[in-house]
Amino acid sequence: MRTHSLPLLAACAAALCGCGVSMGPRASGDMARNLGAHDAALKYYTEYEAEESKYSPYIMIDAYLDMAESALGNGDAAQAHAYYVKAADNCEKDTDEGTLGRWKCCWKITSACSKNSDNEQLLRVARLFARSYPNDIDPRLQLGIALYRNKDNKGAIAELSKALALDAGGGGIRKYFGDYYITDGGPVTEKMAMSFLAYSYEALGDKAAALDAYQKLTEKYPDTMNLLGNFYNDANQFAKAYKILPGDSRLAMITGDYKNAIALTDKQISGNEHALLPFIVEAKGGKARITAIAERGRKPYVQGRGFPLFFPGLGEGILLAVNGKPVPAKTTAEATATITGLPTPSTAVFTVASGKEKWDVTVPMISAVPSDAYGIRALAKYFSGDLKGSAEDAREGLRQFPEDPWTQSAQSLALIGLGDYAAARKLLSGTDSKALARLILALAYAKDGKTDKAAEEYAKVDDAVANAEHLPCVALRKELSHYLRPLASKYMEQGNAALAQGRAEDAALAYSKATNIAGDAQAVLPLRAAMFKAAATARAPMTAEGRKHMLRAQVLVKEGDNPGAANELAQAVKASPYSADLYYNLAIVLGESREFARAIEAINAYLASEPPAQDRQAASDMAVKWEFMAEKEKK
């Protein structure tokens, strides 16, 4: 086995010295790191660090960043963090805030920490950066990004807004240092500032401000349109997202364009069922391994015997055999066939030679097919009526990608079709909050006669995700309503009885269960009307839990936090579902946040209240306006 060693590096250094080249510990460390010998690099850098007092903070920062890279090369994130701390310490030692050294130090450390997700040191140095150069867009931008990554979204918005208020083309540092700024990694541009401002609003939950920020970003920089599409997708506005991202197979399936979803996944799967991503052998930690590199076209590219595999820093090697089977020497295509015939997922043993040395490397077989491709295609086939094709895709997808949630959902539907409800539930046991998986799990219980469990799972579905634009969820809701309608009626009767006996809390719980499983918004309306009538007859007060959430919402509205207020009011509605005013307040807050679909649903619930609301006409007018505004947004 070929390995890097200190004697080998010493010999290289000696050879250079013989040529009149003197190598100190820093140069030796750089050489070792470039060869991938991170242990050796750290040894030399440590020798260099012992002489730290001889060097300026600026020079030592470069050394510490190199040491951090070597530590990361050895997989030691904790040690890398320690070196970032030392780099930051040295940056603070440089008291001349107007020098190029301070600028470059801050820039290098923030770039390295950002790349390697060391958010603690990123924020520390970004604060120093912005404090040192308060009138330049880029340090403020770095601070805004650092705050965002440390989940201080309000702080991020404040700093990013300051950055955008500065002259993006003429900060003092940019003018003074000229080309240096651009050549050393490229400028952090206005585009990035606008992007992170939008991210921060979105993370804060202010969807209206986030949408405005994304729209301004895409108007000025059309190449960022995918960010707006992703925002709509995250906001469960699937039709808008699909309009921007027509090549997204998930969105095609979700919005009911099953034909396109199948076509897109056909392209992802065709010719790649047993293909591997191409590999290259490299050295790391004294051992040879093979890792994936970029594809050539849509087919895997594997170099065979006589076609050298390159070892970074070591020379060349030749692939002799796979699982003991010799690799053909004539063409790359034949060599490729040796590997693409292997099943996935599995492992293979690659026999590699370099000069007189030869070794075996165990390699995982990596499919070139995206992990969700079979699952998406199976679901698209299922909801378009091709049950047999769906089952075949689900089975193959589960074989290759057993952890993919889309594939698990598709296979569960196939098992339900076979009547194996227990197996379907087992496959989805412990499922996360994905609405589609929850509905399929509920269906597996419902068809097995376990309606109470079906109702329990159905109630956990996130209505914001399983909305009218998520057509597979709409189809499953419709199918489930057949099984759950009798149970919803039973809960309504329990609620009415509890109200008649003055047990408001029990009534609220029963009504909440009924409306949670009734189906879509139209199916819920008559149940709510009956609930409001019974509550009015019994003069039922708002529950204590409902009042608590309502008061919390009032505080948040005064603070300008509409997203937080909407969340509190939604909790209030669940806690006291017969209190009509809660629906009205929820509708107003949602309307101001431009969540028109939910606002319309809430105002329609309010309009169903008994006795009829005194401001019924005004509420009805608001619904009409919101419907029109929602139509305009869809265009």
Report on the architecture of this protein.
With 635 residues, this protein is of the alpha+beta class. Among the domains are: 6-223, Tetratricopeptide repeat domain (Serine Threonine Protein Phosphatase 5, Tetratricopeptide repeat, Alpha Horseshoe), CATH 1.25.40; 279-364, Pdz3 Domain (Roll), CATH 2.30.42; 544-634, Serine Threonine Protein Phosphatase 5, Tetratricopeptide repeat. Helices cover 65% and strands 6% of the residues. It contains 32 helices and seven strands. It has helices at 6-18, 25-34, 38-50, 57-73, 77-93, 100-115, 119-132, 137-149, 153-165, 172-177, 179-183, 190-204, 207-220, 225-234, 238-244, 249-254, 258-269, 332-340, 373-383, 387-400, 405-417, 421-428, 435-447, 451-459, 471-500, 504-517, 521-538, 544-558, 562-575, 580-592, 596-607, 616-634, and strands at residues 279-284, 287-292, 309-311, 315-322, 325-326, 347-354, 357-364. Strands 3, 4, 5, 6 and 7 form a five-stranded antiparallel β-sheet that branches. Strands 1-2 form a two-stranded antiparallel ribbon. Strand 4 and strand 5 (325-326) form a beta hairpin. Helix 25 packs parallel to helix 27. The longest helix is centred in the last third of the chain and has 30 residues, at 471-500. The chain is globular and about 90 Å long. The protein starts with 5 loop residues before the first helix and ends with a helix. The model is unreliable at 1-22, 170-187, 274-316 and 329-333 (pLDDT under 50).
